[in-house]
Amino acid sequence: MFLLFALAAPAAALINSTGSVLTPENGTISINGGEAANPSAFTANITINLQQYWDLFVGPVATATINTTVAATPVPTSELVPPPPLYYSSFPTGAQNPTVLKNESWKFPSGFFWGVASAAYQIEGAAQAEGRGPSVWDVFTHRSTSITVNNDTGDVGCNEYYMYKQDIARIAALGVPYYSFSISWSRVFPYGKGPVNELALQHYDDLIETCLQYGVKPVVTLFHWDLPLFLQNEYGGWLSEEIVGDFVAYAKVVFGRYGNKVSHWFTMNEPIVFCDEYPYPKNYFSAVTIAEADQKYFCGHHVLLAHAEAYRLGKSLGLNGTIAFKNNGGYKIPLTNSTDDALAVQRAWDFNEGWFANPVYLNGDYPKYLKDYVSTLGLEFTADQKALINGTADLFAHDAYTSSFYMAPDGGVAACLANSSNSLYPGCFNTTNVNPDGWNIGPAADIYTPWLNQATDWVPLFLRYIQDTWPSAGGIAVSEFGWAEPFEHLKTTKVDILYDPGRMMYYKNYMEAILIAISEGVNVVGCLAWAIMDNLEWADGYLPKFGVQYVNLTTFERSYKASFFTYIDAFKVYAEDPVVPVYV
Ligand SMILES: *[C@@H]1O[C@H](CO)[C@@H](O)[C@H](O)[C@H]1NC(C)=O
Ligand SMILES: *[C@@H]1O[C@H](CO)[C@@H](O)[C@H](O)[C@H]1NC(C)=O
Ligand SMILES: *[C@@H]1O[C@H](CO)[C@@H](O)[C@H](O)[C@H]1NC(C)=O
Ligand SMILES: *[C@@H]1O[C@H](CO)[C@@H](O)[C@H](O)[C@H]1NC(C)=O
Ligand SMILES: *[C@@H]1O[C@H](CO)[C@@H](O)[C@H](O)[C@H]1NC(C)=O
Ligand SMILES: *[C@@H]1O[C@H](CO)[C@@H](O)[C@H](O)[C@H]1NC(C)=O
Ligand SMILES: *[C@@H]1O[C@H](CO)[C@@H](O)[C@H](O)[C@H]1NC(C)=O
Ligand SMILES: *[C@@H]1O[C@H](CO)[C@@H](O)[C@H](O)[C@H]1NC(C)=O
Ligand SMILES: *[C@@H]1O[C@H](CO)[C@@H](O)[C@H](O)[C@H]1NC(C)=O
Ligand SMILES: *[C@@H]1O[C@H](CO)[C@@H](O)[C@H](O)[C@H]1NC(C)=O
């Protein structure tokens, strides 16, 4: 069933209007999950203000007891003591202090940028503070039991909105030189477009100034999945080309405000993933008429146009930071040497990384196997659009967590392509983490992150593949990588939580993999560890933990995990630029 949702007033009018009062008859949607109790809410023309908009589509939102900006307190030197090492010498002395031999062939060249990363909805909290409008993720977490596993929301998150000074002081104390975070579009534009919310900009002014004061360089992502709800309800969000202009208008405000204070800009985070969120669950958003299975490709089409226009705008404004988008996905290894598996692997690249990388890094157009399909949907770029998109990234940013095997579907690629009912159609490739011998490709991460195995052995090959396939003059940045320590959420004492051997191993191996790639001539220019601290892992709530810092969700106290020291050690040993801890 298709539902119509119409707001009577344009966005600008909504903010000030208190025209009509919502009643259960014309607008109540059940709280705490379940589809719309009264779907006619979507068909009513209503005039509401921002608070009523929240109330109607999201419902009650939790607030934190700490709700004003907290000054940074100095990090006590007692917290800056590294843990006992995970790896012991082959001839133990009992000293727990083995000699680690430096490999003289390895180095992170001068200028290598490294740090830790976050995203607005995952850490900020303060969901309604200072005029923030709702995003689709507020609806997902509050309303849709089919999406979240644990009814967790980002209402309070890590309360970073008020605690950012402390968070920046804590990474500066360890000498971390870059902090990658995202700006919440629906803070800056509560309706995604229309009036700008000056309070939000003032917040990000201070976040960026605080970074600079502490010698931490800001890396900013414009869009990390938190689409303003209004844009989804008005025209289907990324499903409509209308979003291109609205995204660019948002980029213009942020670029104009922060300009050369930002070292690296990312327009979009992981479009493969957020486009794959479509189709959204029914009855929480206004309906769209595009066939469900094809919605993601419409999203991708508009993402490419929006990214490209934002990139061109940034260049025309003379921004001196790099501009790119964050692509994502694991290395794809053929399960066998059959020609059908080789074909499946190429199809997997084309339907994933290549979807966004070929247009931006090669020629403005989709890769072959994807193009064969999306051209049947009318998704073709004009010559002008190809020219617009081609070459719109200053480096190749990849969120490269893991690797997997890929193979043809049961019955083969050709049979799948001939049968649109095949569950793997239209990609027609299959994947597994289990190798032909029956072993996992590497140790599994947490049970809530079944997509993640520790497969760092493949990272040098992966980085070389990226360099060879989608060359970028600015090199490759591993814009996210990280590890969900198995069962970490079940640990009950802080000391147990903080000593995280799986994550220590992941970072040690991963950093060595980058060093090997660099030593073999791959131009890796930076890396950003996910995440600065434990946070809302989207639909998986607070169960999987990716932080290099623990956050006590009762007290909001932050604590360094052992793996944070492992990560920093790599730079202490191998960076040509010195690691400078700032003790404040
Ligand atoms: C809502 O308002 C618009 C513009 O006034 C009008 O075109 C539309 O028919 C109305 N829809 C409903 C369901 O009343
Ligand atoms: C902040 O918290 C205090 C105490 O819990 C509360 O009285 C106040 O209304 C809150 N303010 C905001 C803006 O949430
Ligand atoms: C989530 O909320 C729904 C609706 O209130 C409830 O039925 C369910 O038990 C909750 N789940 C958890 C894990 O708390
Ligand atoms: C960009 O410009 C700012 C302000 O002039 C300057 O501080 C910064 O070093 C520049 N960054 C680069 C990468 O040139
Ligand atoms: C594929 O062929 C290569 C080179 O001949 C060989 O090293 C490798 O073991 C083969 N892989 C499989 C899964 O058979
Ligand atoms: C895309 O841009 C690159 C340079 O960035 C150029 O070499 C190539 O010819 C362009 N391709 C097309 C199809 O315009
Ligand atoms: C995909 O591979 C799995 C084994 O990993 C298999 O069980 C499943 O049937 C395959 N699916 C299709 C549609 O080929
Ligand atoms: C197409 O795939 C569906 C789902 O796997 C299957 O039930 C059906 O038999 C297949 N049709 C043909 C003609 O193979
Ligand atoms: C988190 O803080 C609460 C309140 O102080 C405390 O009871 C709890 O033990 C802490 N959790 C851990 C794992 O330290
Ligand atoms: C040192 O690095 C080189 C180049 O990456 C590598 O070939 C060699 O195996 C490394 N040595 C050790 C002991 O890891």
From TrEMBL:
Q: Name one GO biological process term.
A: carbohydrate metabolic process
Which GO MF terms are attached to this record? beta-glucosidase activity
Q: Which domain of life is it from?
A: Eukaryota
Q: Which UniProt keywords apply?
A: Glycosidase, Hydrolase
Question: Per the UniProt record, which residue ranges are transmembrane?
Answer: none
Q: Which SUPFAM superfamilies match?
A: (Trans)glycosidases (SSF51445)
Sorted alphabetically, which Pfam families does this protein's record hold?
Answer: Glyco_hydro_1
Name the protein family: Belongs to the glycosyl hydrolase 1 family.
Spell out the protein name for this chain. Glycoside hydrolase family 1 protein
Q: Which organism is it from?
A: Coleophoma cylindrospora
